[in-house]
Design a protein that fits this description.
The protein is about 5% helix and about 35% strand. The chain is mostly beta strands. The chain has a single domain (about 5-40, about 55-230), classed as Immunoglobulin-like. The strands form two sheets. Strands 1, 4, 6, 7, 9, 10, 11 and 12 form an eight-stranded mixed sheet that branches. It has a four-stranded antiparallel sheet with strand order 2-3-8-5, with no helix packed on it.
Length: about 240
């Protein structure tokens, strides 16, 4: 359904959306990352293939280390949103090894939103972006679990030269990580007790981190052992 979001766009760039909820409908949302092999042609938003493996669409294990360089697509996804109010926007930042030819280099970015407000140096490490959709995003992700809203914010084309991790961070301009619903109400998820910021690893024996894995949605990591399995657990 179409929402009148464009009227608040200018406020979004500096002040955020119309109002902020401390524990709103999207308080359990997260912004995560997913690695796939590069597409044969220019990467398109419609080519995101989570539907091909609905039981495990995200990478918890880092990419294998190869001799020489390797290319990947890394998708930025907003997940675990409310199926009643949907998703209409997000703000976030990114961090990785910013040195050219070291760790991961981002070679391009394609937004999958209707509007975006990137920093001038986006997508360099330490930069941020704000994306919005004109249509309410209500796509479901997992079957046989409580319904949640899910959408693709965009995709990086990356080249890996060695060990590194690419992380979602708060947007530097605001210092916050937020999602907005289709009524232009924000949920600030920056300081959630369990992190909502995704991590993917390259040429590493360490896991990435994704709050919106199927195990989390079906009850969440309730023990320290389970949390280690989501992030920082050596193989």
């Amino acid at each position: 359904m179409k929402r009148a979001l464009l009227g608040v766009v200018f406020a979004c760039t500096t002040l955020g959306f119309a109002s902020v909820a401390l524990a709103g409908e999207n308080a359990n949302a997260a912004i995560s990352l997913h690695i796939t092999k590069p597409t044969s042609k220019a990467v398109q938003c419609s080519s995101f293939s989570y539907r091909n493996d609905p039981t495990g669409p995200f990478d918890l294990k880092g990419t294998p280390c190869t001799h020489g360089v390797a290319n990947f697509d890394v998708w930025v996804v907003v997940c675990n949103g409310s199926d009643s109010v949907g998703l209409a926007g997000a703000e976030f930042g990114i961090e990785y090894d910013g040195a050219t030819g070291s760790g991961v280099d981002i070679t391009s970015w394609r937004s999958c939103a209707d509007l975006e407000f990137p920093q001038d140096d986006w997508p360099q490490s330490g930069s941020g972006n704000l994306v919005t959709w004109a249509d309410c995003q209500l796509t479901d992700l997992f079957q046989n679990l409580p319904k949640t809203a899910f959408c693709v914010a965009g995709v990086f084309e990356v080249t890996s030269y060695g060990g590194d991790q690419l992380s979602i961070t708060p947007r530097p301009v605001s210092g916050r990580l937020k999602v907005a619903d289709c009524n232009a109400v924000e949920d600030d998820i920056t300081d959630a007790v369990v992190s909502r910021m995704g991590i993917v690893t390259f040429c590493s024996n360490r896991h990435g981190y994704n709050y919106c894995s199927k195990s989390t949605l079906s009850g969440g990591p309730t023990t320290w052992g389970n949390l280690k399995n989501l992030y920082g657990h050596d193989q």
